[in-house]
Amino acid sequence: MVTAKTILITGANGQVGKEFQALVSAYPQYKFLFTGKDELSIGDFDAVKDYFSNNIIHYCVNCAAYTAVDKAETEKENAFLINASAVGNLAGVCRQFNVQLIHISTDYVFDGTNKRPYKETDSTSPIGVYGASKLKGEELALQNNPDAIIIRTSWVYSSFGNNFVKTMLRLMKERESINVVDDQQGCPTYAADLAQAIMKIIEKSADFHIPYPIFNYSNEGLINWYQFALAIKELSCSNCIVNPIPSSQYPTPAKRPQYSVLDTERIKEVFAVSIPNWKESLEKCMSLMS
């Protein structure tokens, strides 16, 4: 009898973590362990080591993150603790226990000055504390565990948690008109699609040596936040007026990359991952919310 391989999902109460919980029944060949910060503080090296000592784990998907982009500007220490130091801890323990680590990072490691989709090999240059803390997490992950896999993603949303889609749906119900920036380009990522892609990586990683440490994943397409809001309006049949505005009219504590489209060719080629168009995935997600 073959023993089921075990996948630990940290940050299980976040958007991606919740999507992993939703797909468990589709993967009966695996055993899943889910931990939030109350069950396992990944910043506590001894606690992580004890957890790995007491459980047989084959894969660890780190969904835990400090994601409050604007708050990070005044909570730098906390952002770096969760997004960097804790990731380094986890990576080191994974290496010690021969566990494959898959860590989720962000498009915000780039400064947004590109005119073409960012490749994994492009130079990083974050323009805010959040991006800087995530980049440091990548560096510590690979420093402490050279076999770790980093997945950079962008504009994540889900039927779970707080995100742009839910905020737009709420504001469109509350107001006659809203303003949305139209000069920041990227591509949304449906967290359920990301979770499925990571499962594909886990399935494939047993078969061959993975040639690269970093992969990009987002849904297909290129839009701005205003276009994203218009699609949400259309799918929700809202009468709210959506006005496009430049970022200069919507100042935030943290600067955002003006362009953070990710090139996803590498993940498609290496893992044969099929990536849906952003609109198709948005429809799927919103149908779950209605």
Strands, helices and their partners?
Blueprint: E1 5-10, H1 15-23, E2 30-35, H2 45-54, E3 59-62, H3 76-96, E4 100-106, H4 129-144, E5 149-153, E6 156-157, H5 164-174, E7 177-181, E8 185-186, E9 189-190, H6 191-205, E10 214-217, E11 223-224, H7 225-236, E12 241-245, H8 265-271, H9 278-289
Parallel strand pairs: 1-2, 1-3, 3-4, 4-5, 5-10, 6-9, 7-12
Antiparallel strand pairs: 8-11
Describe the structure.
With 290 residues, this protein is α/β, with parallel strands linked by helices. It has a domain at 5-156 and 190-218 and 264-275: NAD(P)-binding Rossmann-like Domain (Rossmann fold), CATH 3.40.50.720. 39% of the residues lie in helices and 17% in strands. The protein is built from nine helices and twelve strands. It has helices at 15-23, 45-54, 76-96, 129-144, 164-174, 191-205, 225-236, 265-271, 278-289; strands at residues 5-10, 30-35, 59-62, 100-106, 149-153, 156-157, 177-181, 185-186, 189-190, 214-217, 223-224, 241-245. It has a six-stranded parallel β-sheet, sandwiched between helices. Strands 6-9 form a two-stranded parallel ribbon. Strand 4 (100-106), helix 4 (129-144) and strand 5 (149-153) form a beta-alpha-beta unit. Helix 2 runs parallel beside helix 3, helix 5 (164-174) crosses helix 7 and helix 7 (225-236) packs across helix 9. It is globular. The mean pLDDT is 96.
